[in-house]
Amino acid sequence: MSTSFKNVTPTGPGGTATLLIVLSFTGFLLLTQSLFVVPSGQVAVVTTLGKVSGGSRRAGLNFKVPFVQSVFPFDIKTQVQPEKFETLTKDLQVIRATATVKYSVKPNEAGRIFATIASRNSDVYQKIVQPSLLKALKSVFSQYELETIATEFNVISERVADTVAEELNSFDYVDVKSLDLTGLEIAEEYRAAIEQKQIAGQLLLRAKTEVEIAEQEALRYETLNKGLNDQVLFKLFLDKWDGSTQVVPGLPGTNGGTPPVIVGGNNR
């Protein structure tokens, strides 16, 4: 007598429950992998198998293909970055200062930044802003001598800001909000020489001004002296006369007339 066995797949409430749990977990996993949130002040670059796909995703809830697409966030808020630099002037003097640049990534350019130059948000300054900033600083300051830089630092700072903005705008990755240059440092001996030259210039200007004033005064007195004839003196006397002095008026005539004669004060 032989006995035969058959394979039997277990069915019933327990097996169905297990299947439902597996399906629910799988669905939940797919859902969490499909949805992502972009915070305010950021955009996201989505790649499909490593290649940038579509435009920048804006703040809010977004969708991606699970396990196939990846998300890379980029800040679009204004960033403030101080940069200490050292460069040479036109007369080959070393200066040091701090350039504080304010910039922001253009939202629509995040995908191009990721594809061409910076795959991480933290690389934007080092690979985009910093090279253009240092290039502009060296380019502008090399055109001026140390004395000009020390005396016209604010004007030169504005030119540096314009040059940085122009340089970065040519790539069209970021917007430059402002650039401030502070803490200019030069060698003490050169600073003292510049101050002495400035003082000497001020003294020279003061001396020239005093000479001009003296020349103007001399010219004024010369002109006044030429015009002081009897008629003018008579008019000036009448303008100042207080009525208490006895005067024998002598009206000017064609030949000079008779000058006024002061007799004396009133005795009251």
From TrEMBL:
Residues 249-268 are annotated as: Disordered. Residues 204-231 form a coiled coil. The chain crosses the membrane at residues 12-31. GO terms for cellular component: membrane. Residues 33-198 form the Band domain. Pfam families: Band_7. This is Band 7 protein. It comes from Prochlorococcus marinus (strain MIT 9515).
